[in-house]
Amino acid sequence: MGFxxxxxxxxxxxxxxxxxxxxxxxxxxYRILNYKREQIRDFIENRLKDIVESSFEKHKGALAENIxxxxxxxxxxxxxxxxxxxxxPTGDLNKSFEETPxxxxxxEVKEQKEMIEKIDEIKGQVYNDLYTFFSRYYEDxxxxxxxxxxxxxxxxxxxxxxxxxxxxxxxxxxxxxxxxLLFRDYTFKSDNLKVIFRVVEAKDEIASxxxxxxxxxxxxxxxxxxxxxNEIIVRFQYRELSDKEVKDxxxxxxxxxxxxxxxxxxxxxxxxxxxGKEEKKTxxxxxxxx
Length: 290
Hints:
Keywords: Methyltransferase, Transferase. By secondary structure, the protein is of the alpha+beta class. It has helices at residues 4-17, 28-35, 37-64, 67-82, 101-117, 119-135, 243-249, 256-289; strands spanning 138-139, 142-143, 186-190, 193-202, 216-219, 225-228, 231-239.
């Protein structure tokens, strides 16, 4: 199936567009995406392909009805009326007979037959066109028109009422809304352990280019560490710091990068201590079990 690569490429773009890898946050656009995630996933992975297949089947059904029989009949009629040499060994019609009624009928049926045989190639082109269209307006989590240049004489079509001078711009009639930060799970493996860093709460001001207060990644207040079997989940919040936290983390001055680095060091020490407790607990359980 030659169109599978194009389909997969378009599906991956759609998953990126709908931010499938975003953390399971429960605010703003994340809440909407999470609420509809399974429906969106089902549409991208199943219904999208079914819709395209259904459309092609209708088109193919009309063309394919008795196509072999009609093609053989048209070919036989041409050879019977115009001679064996009317159709070349390649299947093409001799040019001298292209304007005849029988010749035109043969060419029409031949074109339909070839179209059916190239149906997968046409499907691939459909998915390619869809990918091209959506990728022109989406990049790194934002919807914004990308610059394009005409290389084959194709020009932009714009509204025009006959003015001598018409001013226009790529983002006309579009609204830009700052999407804020994109929070994703970060997963890695160490030996047999799978470690997941997950943001479970975030407060990010997205209606302004500049937030009122600095925000940092800190451990979750309620349940920041979960260890089960060979999986470790560390939960974070992204928010402002309380006055007490500013003192505890010793981040009263310096750049945001330096402050986050200090917080990271504190987080590391906290997790290191917790892992030590878990290790002692595991050893105690093993001794008790034995």
